[in-house]
Amino acid sequence: MIRGECNCTAVAFEISAELPGVIICHCSICRRATGSNGIAVIVIDKETFRWTRGEDHITSWEKPGADWQTWFCRTCGSPLPGKNDASRMFVPAGLILHGAENLKVVQHIWVDSKAAWDEIGDSGEQHPGAFPA
Ligand SMILES: [Zn+2]
Ligand SMILES: [Zn+2]
User: Fold this and answer.
1) Each residue's pLDDT tens digit, 18-39
2) From the DSSP assignment, how many helices (H) and strands (E) are in the chain?
3) 100 with 93: CB under 8 angstroms?
4) β-strands 58-62, 49-53 pairing
5) Per-residue pLDDT for 86 more than 80?
6) pLDDT at residue 132, as a whole number
7) Separation of 47 CA from ligand 2 center, angstroms?
8) Cα(119) to centroid of ligand 2, in Å?
9) What is the DSSP string of 39-104?
10) How many A from CA of 71 to the centre of ligand 2?
11) What is the pTM of this model?
12) Ligand nearest to the backbone CA of 76
């Protein structure tokens, strides 16, 4: 079982499937949301995901005019898993401290808008914008 939690530990979850690779989004919205070079996420089938604690601590924000939403802990502000599409969730990779030993970055998206100081040093595939259709 793969487990993750937020910084204050109020919110916790588990994933019952093998994790696919990590996707890093370098877009300006994700950069502001994290204060970093983007966000590293894992996209999983929502059937394999379960909250184990603190669902009432989750709050979310949707950026007006953009197809973008973030979920986070209302106590500590850690980004939290959220809805990717009808059948999938995305999980911020940094929340997973147990079961992530073999994870690797496989994709970078919105590389054309990455920060000037952001140097990509892994072997993940790089896409200038969103995933190619
Ligand atoms: Zn928290
Ligand atoms: Zn992004």
Assistant:
1) 999 999 999 999 999 999 999 9
2) 1, 13
3) yes
4) unpaired
5) yes
6) 79
7) 24
8) 16
9) EEEEEEEGGGEEEEE-GGGEEEEE-TTSS-EEEEETTT--EE-EE-SSSEEEEEGGGEEES-TT--
10) 14
11) 0.93
12) 1
